[in-house]
């Protein structure tokens, strides 16, 4: 499976998106911290975290006996650049051109 496909698959699940949102709000959480407020078994949460890690959307760091989970925004930015940014570019260019034309008209 291609890396980008893993990212889309990981983002397709609302529970995994909620985990990413929670890591965005407070990065470096343990499994116990992430379990609080989530309505799923610890084993299910662990499986979801594994998919997020496999998609490179989170990274883990061991601190003593605790495993800390961190959001990795790079794959989401790559999706933005590939699938969103290029579609916005023409609109942004049109607005830039309009602004320049209006400024030039004001200076005449």
The amount of beta strand, in percent, is 5-15%
Low-confidence stretches: none
Rg for CA atoms: 20 Å
Largest sheet: 2 strands, antiparallel
Strand order of the largest sheet: 1-2
Residues in helices, as a percent range: 55-70%
| First-last Cα distance | 58 Å
Shape: elongated
Our count of helices gives 5
Number of strands: 2
Which terms summarize this structure?
108 residues, two-stranded antiparallel ribbon, 5 helices, 2 strands
Walk me through this protein's architecture.
With 108 residues, the protein is mainly α. The protein is built from 5 helices and 2 strands. Strands 1-2 form a two-stranded antiparallel sheet. Strand 1 and strand 2 form a beta hairpin. The longest helix has 33 residues.
Please provide a brief summary of the model.
The protein is mainly alpha-helical.
Give a topology summary.
Elements: H1 3-11, H2 14-25, H3 31-35, H4 42-54, E1 58-63, E2 66-71, H5 74-106
Antiparallel strand pairs: 1-2
Helix pairs in contact: 1-4
